[in-house]
Amino acid sequence: MDPMLVLGTITVADLREALAGMPAEAVVVLAGDGADGDDCSPLADVEEAWYFPATGDSAPLGRDSDGNVHEPGPRDLYAVILRPTDRR
User: Fold this and answer.
1) Which residues fall in a compositionally biased region of kind Basic and acidic residues (predicted)?
2) Using an 8 Å Cβ cutoff, are 80 and 19 in contact?
3) pTM here?
């Protein structure tokens, strides 16, 4: 894996460590990367997936809704995707 693809990111182990001392009833909120920096959403779903850093897209580990299976390439990252609620 190219270290530049994961520079400045956290792993599942890092996240566990960061959350270990926090109250169990706290809500997980995702801050967006919008220009104004005020976009936040509660966490709605966690999934394992292939993440494509070049495009910001992802694909499921198993079969997608069309029945296709993604064959990972050298720059695809195995990731845990934290999905926010849809606020629309």
Assistant:
1) 63-74
2) no
3) 0.68
